[in-house]
Please model this.
Amino acid sequence: MKKCKKCSIEKPLSSFHKNKRIKDGYHYYCKECITVLDKVRYTKNTDGMTLAAKKYYANNREKVKSRHLKKMYGLDLATHESMRKQQMFSCLICNDHEDNSPRGLFVDHCHTTGKVRGLLCHHCNAMLGLAKDNKETLEKAIKYLDAYTSTETID
Model:
């Protein structure tokens, strides 16, 4: 048990974040109080925090991208770059070049296994995601498109 220095309520240690710098190994304030304090600080300085984040991103684009690829997909920048070259900088489904996509190519992965499948444009990646990677859904969509031409309408 530990007493929060903000709300003065005694709570179990699980209610406090760990902090190696503090003698007992736990933060002075409980998690609830820290959440409230963070919200207050954020609302008071939203513009400043946003500007700082944008500035950091602008100055550290490669570092941010590298961290994201590693965290989300287990890829390093060199592997990602070799995938782009191998695909000739184009989407694996529609062959649209990455220059035609404002945000470049997206890493496509299996949500079940986590295995990276390739790089896709935003539209193709979203299509697979919205179909929940379900082959039957995509096959039905193809049949639907085959059944209706652009001149026909649904009654």
Observations:
- Residues 31-44 form the longest helix (14 residues).
